[in-house]
Amino acid sequence: MPIPKELSLTPEQLDELMLSTWNMRIATIGPGTRINLTPLWFGWAGGKIYTFCRGQKVENLRRNPTCTILVDRNERFPELQGAMFQGTARVLEDAAAEAADPHLEEVRWQMGRKYAGGHGEPAEPRRNESTARGRNWRWVVFTPEKVVTWDNFKLAALRRERQTGT
Fold this sequence. Notes:
- The protein has 166 residues and is an alpha+beta fold.
- The protein is 27% helix and 34% strand.
- It comes from Tepidiforma flava.
């Protein structure tokens, strides 16, 4: 059953969710048909999701760029807000690919502010200096093809509307 459009996040609410929430979860297709589901820190710019990651996720995305990302917050049903993105990811394989991306520099600063102090270091915002290294440490850029959002705070108003017929 599709989510009623009245429960969807507005574009401004989606931006706020994406810029303030710390963790996303990315589902990639692993070897065979196994799904690899992993939490990651992320950035949001130009309607795309950026993450710096390593390991099996990168290998999976090189083999099959199709993936799903979930960003949500709150735990109680009436307070759930989130967005599910289905689309494809592109692994930025080297410094030249990183430099050519039109939004990566913005994301580096955004993530440097968002996660300042997140690893126990001083909480002063600074540029995220991560760059391609080794075999599997890479920036990944995800381009959504389908987005589904929900804001369960809107449920009460929707119920009242349906009950009164207005």
